[in-house]
Recover the amino acids of this structure.
């Protein structure tokens, strides 16, 4: 009898869950509703972001969850707007989780980063947009789609617009695929920093200050990145003024940068179309170029094992950006015909394989050799930079990837 | 009509919702109302602890918009804290830390009453520590669990006589862990040796808290008190040098994130009181992911130049995209900013 009574009560309760949930949520804002669902989610749950433009005032957070799908109707229909954000630095913050997929929605106008994911194994962004709607501005948040200290990251068919640091940024992470994305109006379109095993392909990065950046920086927890493949991307017209707040390393990137490799090793850049980036089509530089002092004894400031091959470079005749020292120098040296590939000549003395350049049609090259050519302030202007690519023809047979296979 | 519905929602739907959701983690570890725990006798708002619930305080406090805090610890019967070499304790399961946030209506005359805002419980469950925020009602008779947090207007007259109105944020369940985290596990911040090692004014007289806890048989394995560290109270001018007080303030306000194993480690800035490396402490360290939080400045700390130091800039900001800490603060901690400024001012180059 008692069991029977318990059973029917349980059944009643069970049947009325959706009803009471609905009743409760009638009074709750979408913000509270989503946050409550994020807290109570169980493995395997799908949490839906409804259609519409939803004002959200504080960071929405997911912590310690696994196997969740957060899904909107579509990028253009389900929009979380943080323009009146009063609390928290991010739009969405995901930490200490496993297998989290975000799909089909937009995060707009956050005060800090749009979507930050940390300490998470298994991250998918698919058809997700991060944007700042007021155009490129210093007051925009730093990062758009921002996994950091993560593993197994996939970012695809997503969009970032207007980030004051990097639109799509993967930092201190491992095993990464970034593909089929679009980034524009950011300082950096796509950036891979202190990360290992990254494939960046078939992205369209345009109208940023820099198109694709592959960086290794000092003083971080994950010390060194490497094994990065950048291929089949369209990197064009990245001539936007640099609106990063000064003090940030990305603020040193000269407008007109296509692809920039900073202090990173084992990077392959191939089959990309890199065009109309007015200052540095592709740059390969050491950390010394930043003119910051290095205090991290475990940090390697050199580039090494960088391969640039089978890319198409194209550039209209025009001056590089003159507001930056490197731009002035290039203008003095080359006028309106800035070379496509620019190397600072700083090879890691401990590693024999430095820079390898092959089969980039008629791409032009210059080696700034900063160690010898920059002794006095006027030295670079009177030095002869080597434009000879032959020392960098390493004769390797590079793996070619056809577009059709992907 | 709206208010009736609101009341109906609070009195009928919410408890029902809770009872329905109880099977679901993490709510199975929480009770819907603060009174359900039976921590206090008499009028609950007076916080007169029942037996087994002991008040305590910490020598350095996280700044929480000038809120005052009362803290209690409740250990399960006949169970003990186990002292750890790093100066923390292992807590038995079902330990509860209780912290109530409240405001005195007028900080210049104590007789104008006070208002309890929220009581946070940190409960050591089978699944580890969990934080649950309870928000007090206007009548100050009960506090209800608000798992998703809440924002509410608070006003008070500050010690300078200025009237302050602002929107106070009660953190949600996840935000609790956002601060109380180490290596993916939730941990208490306050009750560790260096923050407890000072006198507390008990009903029957003053006594060092560690001595008291030891006397009550609450701790297993505590070394002799004289060998244990003590964090100075940064508000107390007599408690230590400017540097010691500033490091105390930075430790308790920043190091829960800015330490190895906690979310702020991505920046490479480590602000725990044990840190000695100047770069890791921020001296001439360029920012990593500060965004506009850099305030157009080059380094976290520029010795002798607080106004060129990002640390000061972010402490002074109340813009959610720039301020530090990121959470739990809507007002500027003016006295705190002054202290850290002084520390930077007096630093050797």
């Amino acid at each position: 009898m008692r069991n029977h009574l318990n059973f029917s009560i349980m059944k009643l309760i069970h049947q009325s869950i959706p009803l009471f949930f609905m009743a409760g949520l009638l009074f709750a804002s979408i913000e509270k509703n989503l946050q409550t669902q994020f807290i109570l989610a169980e493995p395997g749950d799908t949490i839906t972001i409804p259609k519409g433009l939803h004002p959200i005032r504080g960071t929405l957070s997911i912590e310690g969850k696994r196997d969740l799908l957060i899904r909107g109707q579509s990028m253009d229909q389900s929009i979380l707007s943080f323009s009146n954000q009063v609390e928290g630095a991010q739009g969405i913050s995901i930490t200490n989780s496993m297998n989290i997929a975000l799909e089909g929605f937009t995060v707009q106008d956050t005060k800090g980063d749009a979507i930050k994911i940390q300490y998470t194994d298994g991250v998918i962004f698919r058809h997700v947009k991060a944007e700042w709607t007021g155009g490129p501005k210093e007051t925009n948040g730093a990062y758009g789609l921002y996994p950091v200290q993560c593993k197994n990251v996939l970012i695809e068919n997503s969009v970032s617009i207007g980030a004051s640091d990097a639109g799509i940024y993967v930092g201190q992470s491992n095993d990464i695929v970034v593909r089929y994305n679009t980034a524009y109006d950011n300082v950096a379109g796509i950036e891979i920093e202190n990360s290992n095993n990254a494939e960046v392909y078939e992205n369209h990065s345009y109208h940023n200050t820099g198109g694709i950046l592959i960086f290794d920086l000092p003083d971080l927890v994950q010390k060194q990145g490497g094994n990065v493949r950048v291929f089949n991307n369209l990197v064009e017209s990245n001539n936007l003024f640099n609106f990063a707040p000064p003090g940030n390393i990305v603020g040193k990137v000269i407008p007109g940068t296509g692809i920039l490799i900073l202090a990173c090793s084992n990077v392959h850049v191939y089959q990309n179309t890199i065009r109309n980036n007015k200052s540095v089509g592709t740059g390969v530089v050491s950390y010394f170029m930043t003119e910051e002092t290095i205090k991290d004894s475990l940090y390697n400031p050199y580039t090494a094992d960088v391969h640039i091959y089978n890319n198409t470079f194209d550039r209209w005749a025009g001056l590089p950006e003159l507001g930056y020292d490197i731009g002035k120098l290039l203008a003095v040296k080359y006028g309106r015909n800035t070379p496509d590939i620019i190397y600072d000549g700083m090879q890691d003395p401990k590693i024999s394989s430095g820079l390898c350049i092959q089969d980039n049609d008629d791409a032009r090259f210059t080696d700034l050799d900063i160690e010898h050519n920059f002794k006095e302030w006027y030295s670079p202007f009177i030095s002869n930079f080597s434009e000879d690519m032959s020392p960098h023809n390493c004769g390797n047979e590079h793996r070619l990837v056809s577009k059709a296979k992907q | 009509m709206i208010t009736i519905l609101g009341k109906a929602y609070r009195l009928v739907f919410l408890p029902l919702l809770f009872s329905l959701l109880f099977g679901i983690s993490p709510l199975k570890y929480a009770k819907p109302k603060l009174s359900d725990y039976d921590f206090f006798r008499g009028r609950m708002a007076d916080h007169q602890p029942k037996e087994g619930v002991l008040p305590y305080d910490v020598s350095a406090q996280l700044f929480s918009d000038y809120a005052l805090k009362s803290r209690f610890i409740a250990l399960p019967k006949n169970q003990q804290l186990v002292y750890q070499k790093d100066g923390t304790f292992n807590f038995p399961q079902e330990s509860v830390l209780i912290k109530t946030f409240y405001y005195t209506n007028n900080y210049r005359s104590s007789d104008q009453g006070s208002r309890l805002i929220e009581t946070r419980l940190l409960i050591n469950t089978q699944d580890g520590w969990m934080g649950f925020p309870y928000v007090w009602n206007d009548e100050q008779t009960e506090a209800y669990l608000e798992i998703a947090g809440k924002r509410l207007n608070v006003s008070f007259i500050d010690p300078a006589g200025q009237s302050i109105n602002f929107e106070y944020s009660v953190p949600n369940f996840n935000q609790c862990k956002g601060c109380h985290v180490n290596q993916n596990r939730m941990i208490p911040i306050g009750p560790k040796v260096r923050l407890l090692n000072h006198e507390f004014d008990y009903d029957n007289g003053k006594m060092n808290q560690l001595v008291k806890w030891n006397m009550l048989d609450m701790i297993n394995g505590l070394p002799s008190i004289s060998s244990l560290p003590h964090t100075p109270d940064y508000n107390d001018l007599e408690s230590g040098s400017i540097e010691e007080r500033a490091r105390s303030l930075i430790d308790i306000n920043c190091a829960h994130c800015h330490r190895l194993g906690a979310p702020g480690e991505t920046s490479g800035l480590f602000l725990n009181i044990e840190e000695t490396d100047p770069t890791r402490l921020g001296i001439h360290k360029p920012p990593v992911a500060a965004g506009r939080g850099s305030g157009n400045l080059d380094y976290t700390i520029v010795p002798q130049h607080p106004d060129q130091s990002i640390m000061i800039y972010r402490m002074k900001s109340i813009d959610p995209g720039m301020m530090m800490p990121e959470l739990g603060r809507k007002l500027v901690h003016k006295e705190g900013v002054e202290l850290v400024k002084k520390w930077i001012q007096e630093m050797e180059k």
